Amino acid sequence: MALLGARGLARLTALLLTATLALAGVVVAVFSIQGDSSTLSLPSLVDLVALDALHASVGGLLADLETDGPVAAMTGLAAAAAVLLGLILLFGVLVRRRERLVVMHSDADGTIAARPRALGRAAETLGEQSRDVLRTSTRTKARRRGRGGRLRLTVYHARTVDGTAAATAGRDRLRALAGSFALRVRVRSRVPRRGARVR
Amino acid sequence: MTLDGDSGHPVSERVRLAGLAAQAIAATDGITPTRGPVGRWQTTSESGTVDGVLAVEDGRGCIELDLHLAARWPPAMPLQLIAEQLRGRVRRSAAIFGMTQRLGAVSVAFDDVLAEASSS
Prior knowledge:
By secondary structure, chain A is of the alpha+beta class. In chain A, 54% of the residues lie in helices and 19% in strands. Chain A starts with a helix and ends in a 9-residue tail after the last strand. Chain B is an alpha+beta fold. Chain B is built from 2 helices and 8 strands. Chain B has a single domain, classed as Cation efflux protein, cytoplasmic domain (Alpha-Beta Plaits), CATH 3.30.70. The chains are: A alpha+beta, B alpha+beta.
């Protein structure tokens, strides 16, 4: 759970930082169109975002930091929080999530299991055995504890084919696989979007 | 320790059991060992690497084997039967070489499927 939170925070931060960087790049590019002190010039941008005032306030903060006081203490706390946030972001970026296996059988002699992706590929192969099916896609998740998991098969078929029949046929083909791995199967049928590629 | 027949290097029981598991995988129809995206699932020693087998010695002196496989799909028999057959082969091999006491849990993971072109 902590890892998921850290990963989410890392992704959000990366998104915000890249968006901010892109926006800043666009603004600088636009304000580089003209020179001197015209409207779309860099000196004009400096005036617009009040960089002089910011420089003055940062200078004041740095001066306060050099002396003991509440500002220095607060800044120290903020720096510690920034380090902690950095560590959480590193954790979210670098630590890999272990993929859970779909357990078929487990006892003292060992476990028999399969990777969700492998089961998904197996289900896609079974689903595509029907002539009426153009292609399939799957989403498989293992249960947190114990045997089994969930498998969702999407069957893409031509407009001329009955979707309910295609879904039922797909479910029938998955019956043995679902039974052996204790999978809860959900099959849905779809007509591919116009222009979508068919493998 | 024993000597490896091919290279003459001393081989620990852990590596010996990994080798026996690899032989059992090779003798079982419909499966091939897979060593994972960055070679995580292999046992390495001076005499070479055993792909698809992770042999780990636990704190009680037992060696646990994790067998990582790619199965031919659709399989000729149910995957559970293939796995049970494979585990039986590994345990029989360990018994023949007098390593039953050292062999702990033998786990089987199907990490990939090798789909055959369907004719229907």
